Fold this protein.
Amino acid sequence: MNIWKYIYIKFYKCRRHIVGKTLGEEYTAMLFIASLDCLWYWGTITFIDGFLGYPLLPMHKYLYASLLIGGALIIEKLRKMTMCKEGLFEEMIKEVEEEPHEVVWNVLSIMYILCTFGYIILAILLWSNRLIPTLAI
């Protein structure tokens, strides 16, 4: 069991409870997990840009956009390959339902989601105010 599987199944169940049964529910739940991974990736790219002296966005807008979009597409493809395989979804549901420490996993999943949003907000705020220390390269 890992945090991504737990969030994946809980988001799937919550979305199904709110919206009802729809087409592509497994893929939609996987996109939520992939979007969390993309936020970590984008925050890291933002910090790297700051460490290098903020050269990417002002001077190389297309490179910056291609890094962000290309990374997001790669993350989506990797998550799709690992989480949307035939028969794997049923195994994950069974594994999550049999978990004896549900409260611990609920707290961990909420903490992970909050840390993800906190990380990206911190990266954007520090980058926009130019508070990330520049490495001397």
In short: The chain is about 80% helix and 0% strand. The helical segments are 3-19, 25-51, 56-59, 61-83, 88-97, 102-128. The first helix runs from residue 3 to 19.
